[in-house]
Specification:
The chain has 101 residues and is an all-alpha fold. The chain has a domain of 70 residues. Helix content is 76%, strand content 0%. Helix 1 runs antiparallel to helix 2 and helix 2 runs antiparallel to helix 3. The longest helix has 36 residues.
């Protein structure tokens, strides 16, 4: 499951079971931190698959070049998405801190 699919699944899970006043957070869907950790793991897995595909191609194993290129591109897109998410979170944090002063 890609990082984007995990975000969609987490959002759907939270939308399907909204918190009610007085409800316990432990009964809720996985939190943002859990989703972020999962996304980091997925990006790392895509990077590893990309490295494995490149290594297989360089060793002369029967790997199609388009599969290698697709794996590299997918890992790059996932990393770009994660970097953009970090940038947006940092910007949001700075905005909140600026509002408090």
């Amino acid at each position: 499951m890609s990082a984007i699919d995990q975000i969609r699944a987490a959002a759907a899970a939270q939308g399907a079971a909204p918190l009610r006043p007085g409800s316990q957070l432990s009964n809720a869907a996985p939190g943002f931190g859990d989703t972020l950790k999962s996304m980091l793991g997925d990006v790392q897995q895509l990077q590893d698959q990309s490295s494995d595909a490149i290594g297989s191609f360089l060793r002369g194993e029967p790997v199609e070049i388009h599969e290698v290129m697709a794996a590299v591109e997918e890992a790059g897109i996932a990393l770009d998405f994660l970097i953009e998410l970090r940038n947006r979170l940092t910007e949001a944090y700075r905005t909140v801190v600026g509002m408090q002063t």
